[in-house]
Design goal:
34 helices; elongated; mainly alpha; single chain; Leucine-rich Repeat Variant
């Protein structure tokens, strides 16, 4: 690559001196050069070119061109830019201190240092070589506002991403510095000046990981309103959108649920490090913060930001709604303000502007599946009526595919809680009056359902059994047990019978309910009459201590004896009842059945047994 080519491209990377169109062309050309640079010659040429610019200490323009060029390279390729930055840092060229009195040059340098903070080695270099400059930039009366904001942002990045100090005093000092700098940035946000807002928000994205900063920020409603209003402006860049979303995610996120063993390990590590940097936040504190954001209308901002989100912004919106939906009382508000439409828009969109049909096969859905958005959707659909929650743009059927994706036990990014909540949401969807919803669940999720029915986790097994109980009331679900041509139907019945004997009451109740519902299918349920373990299970269940389970067993026995038109099948059931001492069980427990009609029908069954 020639020096002339670099001279043609690099000057256009200075966004203050070039149009956005020219800068975009220059970035594309440079990115293409990096892709074709198999031997590293491109990096070496740029390194030499920039070093030559920096050696030209008499010209401030050379400095600014060097800094702005390398800043742009950081945005194109972090690794390439870091390599150049680190090589330049080893050179003993002399930077004229007088030139740094020029705010424009200093601003260019600080923008470079801010971009370089994405790499640990770069951060170490910045701490060693530029700490004094950063502090002076903040305290100097000659520094303009953008210089102060950039310096504060860099210092926050350095402190927020540092390795955990071992001394508690040092931790507290770092936290106090971050909190103080964040106070300064909040004031800048309140000024709402386009020239400084982006840099201030970037600093707050890192600072808002700090416990004290979160508390101050959530109390500053004017600052929050400016951020939310900014996010709704058509002029706001995707980068600022992402910064605002990151701050909101930091404010709303709950700590990951840990097992007792993991929690003990976390406490031991914290004690060993003697740190207080990551203070434990109670759920109540986070709940209150989330209520504030809902009251301020955060959903209206998410509606705007979800229209053409970048991949990272889409994930941030999913994480934000997942956190907001954690408290069940928030879910109806989220639905009323368009939360389901936001989530389904994210989940049914690829990374390109092209849309995916709601009937698109699961295999065609992009691999960039937005797991947080699916988890948020699951939380919401646990608590709302699916027939009332969907606007005209989407139907309950649209939610099936992303919820089914959460049942994939092979994914490391999906937790047991995610699976559990997805099962609860699917169970609620299966109660929808729209029959096609249950058919979609059966057609897309049955393999996962079969696996989860035999899960070692009691809660997962229970939720899956409850889902099956809802599904078997529909033709698609019932066919998995009653279709004579389905070779797996006998095994499915066997699993259901085993679940009816589970130690967990709710699992046992759901399984007995599913059996009772299957017996409601009249002549279609004749297959059950031949199943000795199932008849034996019904006799066992009618003696259960739980009233609801006894009722379900009684319904099943009634239906299989007098609910079929084929007298031969009825006689088979009666024979099996006698074989398993069902007569005495019925006589003993018929009085515990409080439904008058059911009690009358069971009396008929008893009469048939003694005839």
């Amino acid at each position: 690559m020639s020096k002339e080519l670099l001279e043609d491209i690099l000057p256009f990377l200075d966004e203050k001196k070039s149009s956005s169109k020219d800068r975009a062309h220059a970035i594309v050309e440079l990115a293409g050069l990096f892709q074709r640079d198999s031997d590293g010659s491109c990096i070496n040429e740029i390194n030499a070119y920039l070093l030559n610019l920096l050696d030209d200490s008499a010209h401030g323009l050379s400095y600014r061109l060097a800094f702005s060029s390398l800043t742009s390279i950081f945005h194109i390729n972090l690794n390439v830019a870091s390599d150049i930055f680190q090589k330049l840092s080893k050179k003993q060229f002399k930077l004229s201190s007088n030139l740094f009195k020029d705010n424009e040059i200093l601003e260019s340098l600080l923008e470079l240092l801010s971009a370089a903070c994405g790499d640990k080695t770069n951060r170490d270099i910045i701490k060693a070589k530029y700490a004094d400059l950063l502090n002076q930039s903040i305290t100097s009366g000659k520094s303009n506002e953008i210089v102060k904001v950039l310096a504060a942002t860099i210092l926050i990045k350095l402190l927020a991403t540092t390795n955990q100090p071992t001394k508690e005093v040092q931790v507290q000092e770092n936290e106090e510095v971050i909190s103080t700098l964040a106070d300064m940035l909040r004031v800048v946000v309140l000024q709402n000046q386009q020239s400084t807002l982006g840099a201030a928000l970037e600093g707050l994205t890192y600072a808002s990981l700090n416990f004290e900063v979160k508390n101050k920020l959530i109390q500053d409603e004017q600052c929050l309103k400016i951020m939310l209003d900014t996010s709704k402006s058509q002029k706001t860049s995707p980068l600022i959108h992402f910064g605002i979303l990151t701050i909101l995610v930091n404010l709303t996120s709950y700590p990951a649920a840990l097992s007792k063993e993991d929690e003990d390990i976390r406490k031991l590590r914290a004690h060993a490090n003697s740190t207080t940097a990551n203070k434990d936040e109670s759920r109540n504190i986070i709940d209150d913060r989330n209520k504030v954001l809902l009251r301020l209308g955060v959903l209206s901002s998410l509606v705007v930001m979800s229209r053409q989100p970048t991949p990272n912004s889409g994930l941030a919106i999913g994480n934000l709604l997942k956190a907001l939906a954690t408290v069940s009382n928030n879910r109806s508000k989220i639905v009323q303000q368009g939360g389901i439409s936001i989530l389904l828009s994210l989940l049914t969109s690829s990374l390109t502007p092209a849309r995916i049909s709601l009937n698109t096969p699961e295999s065609s859905i992009p691999q960039t599946f937005n797991i947080p958005a699916a988890c948020a959707l699951a939380k919401i659909l646990i608590s709302v009526n699916p027939d009332l929650a969907f606007l005209s743009k989407y139907t309950p059927s649209a939610a099936v595919s992303p919820l089914v994706r959460l049942l994939d036990t092979s994914s490391d990014d999906v937790t047991l809680l995610d699976q559990f909540e997805s099962l609860l949401a699917l169970t609620n969807l299966a109660s929808s009056e729209k029959v096609d919803v249950s058919s979609l669940i059966v057609n897309n999720a049955w393999d996962s359902i079969e696996n989860l029915l035999i899960s070692n986790n009691i809660m997962i097994q229970r939720a899956t059994t409850e889902l099956v109980c809802n599904l078997v009331s529909t033709p698609a679900g019932a066919s998995k047990y009653l279709d004579a041509e389905d070779k797996d139907s006998h095994q499915n019945i066997r699993v259901l019978v085993a679940l009816s004997d589970a130690e967990d009451l709710k699992t046992r109740s759901a399984a007995s309910g599913a059996i009772a519902l299957l017996s409601e299918w009249g002549d279609e349920s004749k297959k059950l009459a031949y199943n000795e373990p199932l008849i034996q299970a019904l006799i066992r269940l009618i003696q259960d201590d739980d009233d609801g389970i006894r009722l379900r067993a009684a319904v099943g026995l009634r239906n299989l004896v007098i609910g079929v038109s084929d007298d031969e099948k009825s006689q088979i059931v009666l024979k099996l009842i006698r074989k398993f001492s069902g007569l005495s069980a019925l006589k003993t427990h018929i009085k515990k059945v409080h439904d008058v009609d059911l009690q009358r029908d069971l009396s008929i069954v008893l009469q048939k047994l003694v005839d």
